[in-house]
Design brief:
Helix content: under 10%
Number of helices: 3
Shape: globular
Radius of gyration: 23 Å
Number of strands: 28
Strand order of the largest sheet: 10-9-4-3-14-15
Largest sheet: 6 strands, antiparallel
């Protein structure tokens, strides 16, 4: 879809007034985030203002920011970790200006290229609106882990953090809805307003659903469409172009390519960064008609699932703390063939709705063996039984809400593979909800109803047996 603005109800820094009539510039009484200080911005108006990185690392705190936790991470002794200044360590690496099928798919990726956590307090992502740079995201506290990445989307539930920071940084979402016809100019600014990273290029790089990435990945030789990289995937929010992680130097990705992620070689060289015609005879632009990538490698020996092949069989909505480590969704392959998991998503309902529209899990690459099961956790872990020859990558955007009924769908593009519902009265801390009867039931029951001895059985049948073996009792 072309240019549109999605106003996300930006969370204003300023708030209604103080109990005391403070004077401009004076400290005032207001509960603020951990990297903020309460100051009177006008007579009688108390506001939370971001601290500089040095001030933030020095201490201070409050009760959390607009979105997320925002306090500094701690070491094993419980002491705050002093996070580094962002200059020279944070890189704007990938942007998707034209989301497909809607603008909700737009994102901006920031990568920490250093081996230490980096302070995000006061860091801003901006881009062009008309001829002016406007704020898109303003971070107000917290740190991005060493070699970590974050992909910022218009909807907070879709954000990707790899690895997941603990505690979660705070930020204010402004407005997305990027122009799809203007030149690209995204900037990353530190708390003092200095540009510390920039992605600028021609509007010819913008195609629906295809991101624009540094070439080589994390490099500074120009920009290319993401499909230029080996493997040809259209985007990789929070991950390397081969879908690996930056913490593993991209070596854990199922796709081809190493840490530099350079585009495949060809007679015409890499696609141009200025959107002009490629060198050569003036034929079709290789950015728009790539053909098979040169280093694609052998295709995976599995096909995409059809409706009824793949189901959500078990869900642990309210896990014991930490929820991200224990909350899971179990998928079971009911077919007699391996299933390609690339692009499969689990969607759930938002507050006040019964329509599953929010993406919670996205799967990349790999094959789920015939009869096998996959337990996908909210911390991006995936356990497969039997072990998958071709690894499956899990992207989890956030944990599930515990305070309302869960309405979900399993989708591959426009194809609905499965739907499921977990009523509110089945949501119990530490106890999963499972199809009843196991694997074939249309409704769910508490796991303890099926097996009084097990509160959950991620990746296994309710009786503790293995799905691919037909669920024999252990």
């Amino acid at each position: 879809m072309k240019y549109a603005m999605v106003l996300l109800g930006a969370l204003a820094l300023t708030s209604a007034g103080c109990e005391d009539k403070c004077n401009t510039g004076d400290p005032c009484s207001k509960s603020c985030g951990p990297c903020e200080v309460a100051l009177c911005v006008a007579k009688g108006i108390c506001s939370c203002k971001p601290l500089s990185p040095a001030e933030c690392n020095g201490g201070g705190g409050g009760d959390g920011g607009p979105i997320g936790d925002g306090s500094l991470p701690t070491n094993e002794a419980g002491m705050p970790v002093q996070c580094a200044d962002p200059a020279g360590k944070l890189v704007l690496n990938e942007v998707l200006p034209d989301g497909e099928p809607t603008e909700d798919g737009e994102f901006v990726e920031v990568v920490n290229i250093s081996d230490e956590p980096v302070n995000l307090a006061g860091v801003r992502i901006t881009s062009l609106r008309g001829e002016s740079q406007v704020d898109r995201v303003v971070f107000t506290g917290g740190c991005l882990p060493a070699n970590g990445a974050v992909a910022a989307f218009p909807n907070e539930a879709d954000w990707v953090w790899i690895p997941t920071p603990s505690p979660r940084p705070t930020y204010e979402l402004k407005s997305f809805g990027f122009s799809n016809s203007a030149d690209i100019d995204f900037r990353l600014l530190d708390s003092g307003g200095t540009v510390i990273s920039q992605m600028a290029g021609s509007a010819d790089l913008v195609d629906p659903g295809v991101s624009v990435n540094r070439n080589p990945d994390l490099g500074d030789e120009g920009l290319v469409q993401h499909t230029a990289f080996p493997g040809g995937v259209p985007a990789s929010p929070g991950r390397c172009p081969n879908l690996g992680t930056y913490a593993a130097d991209c070596a854990d990705g199922p796709g081809p390519g190493g840490p530099d992620g350079g585009p495949p070689p060809g007679d015409g060289g890499p696609p141009p960064t200025d959107g002009g015609p490629p060198p050569g005879d003036g034929g079709p632009n290789p950015r728009l008609d790539m053909g098979p990538p040169a280093d694609m490698g052998p295709a995976l020996p599995c096909d995409p699932p059809a409706a009824g092949d793949l189901i959500v069989n078990e869900v642990l909505v309210d896990a014991a703390t930490p929820e991200g480590d224990n909350e899971f969704v179990e998928l079971v392959n009911l077919s007699d063939r391996a299933l390609a998991m690339e692009g499969v998503q689990v969607l759930v309902n938002s507050s006040g709705s019964e329509q599953p529209t929010e993406v919670r899990y996205t799967f990349h690459g790999g094959c789920l063996p015939a009869g096998g099961a996959l337990a996908a956790y909210a911390n991006d872990r995936g356990d497969v039984a039997p072990e998958a020859e071709f690894p499956i990558m899990v992207d989890a955007s956030s944990t599930l809400a515990n305070s309302r009924a869960l309405f979900g769908a399993l989708r591959l593009g426009d194809v609905v593979l499965d739907t499921f519902e977990v009523p509110q009265d089945l949501i119990d801390e530490g106890v999963s909800a499972n199809r009843d009867p196991d694997r074939i039931g249309a409704t769910f029951s508490k796991h303890t109803t099926l097996n009084a001895e097990l509160m959950s059985s991620p990746g296994r049948c309710a009786n503790g047996g293995l799905h691919h073996e037909g669920c024999p009792a252990p």
